[in-house]
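Before the break, one more example. Copy the sequence into your notebook; we will annotate it together after we see the structure.
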Amino acid sequence: MTVTVCAVTALLCTSAGAQASPGSTRAGGDGGPASRSGGWHGPVLSHPGQPEIDYPRGEVCAFPTHAEFPVVDMVQKTWTNDAGDPVYAVISGPLIMDVTNKDTGKTVRRDLSGTGTLSYPEPGRTDTYVLSGGDWGVGLHSSDRPAHNKWLVSRGFMAVRLTKSGGETHRELLTLEGRYENLCETLKP
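Here is what the structure looks like once it is written out:
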């Protein structure tokens, strides 16, 4: 995995928990602050959580869904610029997701463990970032581009741009290569 993500997902499943800052941190791997100037600083280590996810009927799948994460043990390494803004991060570690179709009770378990990256293409802005890698999932909503109403779990490579605006997160699927699963299809009645 790598978040949702929610996010690892999320990631990831892309979540705000995958962004820089949550959890415990340690700069430079030695407990002290990054002391260099000019360029990247870090990494700062954190342990992002992954909150449960509830999607109402029609938001992602045609039926209501619930996801929980019985195993979350991710480590995030984040590099920042001189202003302290995140520039790049690597997230890795175990992440197991159980997703349930709330209409039928059918549940599937997916292992989203692995490694992914977060990159921040606009210096100074943490409201837009790209989450990429393999073995992670993303719920694509009706308002997302170009595809929508899918819950994808990539087994190849996937990259998604996430933009937060007005309290909402918009997702843009940039690339999807190799094997993947649409959990909406897997869980449909």
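The helical segments are 183-187. Residues 1-36 have pLDDT under 50 and may be disordered. Try to locate both features in your own notes.
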